Amino acid sequence: MLWKNTRREIEEELKEYFGVKHVFLVSSGKAALVVILSALKKIRNRKYVVIPAYTCYSVPSAVLKAGLEIKLCDIKMETLDYDYEMLEKVVNDEVLCIVSTHLFGIPSNVSELKERYGRKGVFIIEDAAQAMGGVFQNRKLGTLGDAGFFSLGRGKNINTGAGGIILTSSDDISGYIQEIYQSLDREPLIEYTINIFQVFFQQLFLNPNLYWFPTQLSFLKIGETIFCKDFPMYKLSNFKIGLLYQWESRLEKFNNQRSITADYYIRNIKFAENRRIYSSKCPFLRFPVYVNDSEEKKNICKDNFQYGISPMYPDSINNIEEIKEIFYKSTYPEAEFVADHLITIPTHCLLKEQDKLHFAKMLMSLQHETEK
User: Fold this and answer.
1) pLDDT digits 0-9 by tens, 4-30
2) What is the CATH number of the domain that holds 83?
3) Largest Cα–Cα distance of the chain, in whole Å?
4) Is residue 263 part of a domain?
5) Are 180 and 35 within 8 A, CB to CB?
6) CB within 8 A of 22, min separation 6: which ones?
7) If you ran DSSP here, which 8-state letter would residue 230 be given?
8) How many Å separate Cα 212 from the centre of its chain?
9) Where are the beta strands (DSSP E) in 77-201?
C-alpha cells in the first residue's frame, strides 16, 4: 500500500488541498526556494532578496545559490515577523522579492507585505517550511503570496527524510519554474539509499525516551545548524513520493495534536500576553520560549537534549561566519536577542503526558517572561 500514489496523483492531491494551480516536488525545502528565486529573476531584472535576520540558515544559502544578493531586515521578538518600520527602509527598486517566514508555524503577515510592496513589483515568497497545513485569515499558509514552499525534512509537519514542495497559482511563475524543474536530475542511487536509512532511524527513535540514541549518530546531524555554501538539487525521488501516502489525513492529525500540546503549554505556563507568538490556534512545529540569557539557554539545552529541547539557530544571519562580511558589521538587535534567548520545546504527537508535564514544570521554574 505504501507505493499506491504516483507523482501525478500526489501533485493533484496537493493542488486540491491547498487550492493552487501548480505544484512541483523537489529534493529539499532549500532547493524549492532556489527554484522559485531562479524563476522570479527571469521575470524581473532585480538582484536583492529580503529575508529576516533570524531564520533558518538554508534561506540565505538558497538566495546565494540562486545567484542573488541578500538584504536583511530585523524582526520583532513579540511576533518573530518583520520589523515593518525597518522594512520600509530596506525595500527599494532593486528588490526582487521578500521572503515571509512562518517560523515554527506561526503565521507572518503576508497580506500586509502584498499590500505594501506587491504594487511596487516586489514578489512575496512564503517560507512555509515549518507551517504545512497552517491557516491564516481563512487561507492555508503557503498560498497567500506569489509562491510558497514547504519542507518535508526531519521534524517537519510531514517527514520524508528530505524533500520540498513548491506552490503557486501564477501561470507566469509556474512557466519558468517548469523550465527549471525539467532540468533537474533524479536523485543518485547513493543518496537515494542513504535517505532510506535516515528515514528509518528518524522514525524509529522519534520517541522522546529514545531521543538520546540518534543524537549520538553523527551522520543524522541531529541538532546541527550548518550553513551550506552549495547543495544538490533533484526532483523528489519515488521513495519519498511513496512516503507521502495518506499525507493529508496524517497532516491534519499531527497538526491537531501540535495545537493541543501548545494549548497545554499556554494554559499551564503564564506567558507574556503581549507576545503574539503564543496562540493555541497555531499548530506549532516547535513551541518557542524565551529564557533569561544565553548562559541559561545553554544550560537548559545541555541538560534536556535527550528530551528534544532545541536552541534552534545558533546566531542571527548577519553573524554567520561564512557570509558575515556581506553585511559590513551591520547589527540586528532583535534578531540577535532572539538567537541568544530562544529555546524551543517539542510538540509532536509521540509526546506523552509525563513528557509535557516535565516541560511545563521546567519552564515554570524559570523566569521566562524575559524583558530586555
Assistant:
1) 578 999 999 999 999 999 999 999 999
2) 3.40.640.10
3) 55
4) yes
5) yes
6) 15, 166, 167, 168, 169, 170, 171, 173, 174, 177
7) -
8) 24
9) 95-101, 123-127, 135-136, 139-140, 147-151, 164-168
Average model confidence (pLDDT) for the chain?
A: 88
Residue 44: give the domain boundaries. 7-183
The answer to whether residue 229 sits within a structural domain is no
The stretches in the chain having pLDDT less than 70 are 1-4, 192-194, 196-225, 270-274, 280, 366-372
Domain count, the chain: 2
C-alpha cell at position 9: 496523483
Report yes or no on 108 lying in a domain: yes
Q: Are residues 31 and 179 in the same domain?
A: yes
Query: Are 192 and 239 spatial neighbours (Cβ–Cβ below 8 Å)?
Result: yes
* 9 φ, ψ (degrees, to nearest 5): -65, -40
Q: Is 301 exposed, middle or buried (0-12, 13-18, 19+ CB in 10 A)?
A: middle
Cβ-contact 54, 61 below 8 angstroms: no
Task: Write out the three cell numbers for 292.
Answer: 533569561
* 250-262 burial code (b ≥16 CB/10 A, e <16): bbeebbebbbebb
- Contact indicator for 46, 277 with CB cutoff of 8 Å: no
Q: How far is CA 227 from the centre of its chain?
A: 15
How far is Cα 156 from Cα 121, in angstroms, rounded to an integer? 32
